[in-house]
Amino acid sequence: MNTIDEFITLVSDEIGLSVTAADADRPLGDLPGWDSLHLVTLLSIVERRTGRAVSLPDVLQAGSLAGIYRVVVPSPASGAGTPSGAVRGPA
């Protein structure tokens, strides 16, 4: 799950919602059939696949599938996943 397209495919395949990359930036409430149970299911799937806990407050603020993707698959430049105060190695 390295790209937004792979993430959208995960949502479609695992949750059963008919979504495409064109839906990535739509508000979650505008996705046909979306409800809070889908969010909980998606978080569970992502945590199981990545082996990392996902911040529920961050996901709730995301507002779209693209936003959730940015929370669960942070860019290397964001420093996400590095404990506070830890020093990152050379790039």
Could you characterize what this model shows?
With 91 residues, this protein is mainly alpha-helical. The protein has one domain (4-76): Non-ribosomal Peptide Synthetase Peptidyl Carrier Protein, Chain A. Helix content is 46%, strand content 0%. The protein has helices at residues 4-15, 36-50, 56-62, 65-72. It starts with a helix and ends in a 19-residue tail after the last helix. The relative contact order is 0.16. The model is unreliable at 80-91 (pLDDT under 50).
The average pLDDT score comes to 84
- The CATH class is Mainly Alpha
Q: What do we call the CATH homologous superfamily?
A: ACP-like
In whole angstroms, the N-to-C terminal distance is 22 Å
Unreliable parts: 80-91
Summarize the structure.
This protein is mostly helical and 91 residues long. 46% of the residues lie in helices and 0% in strands.
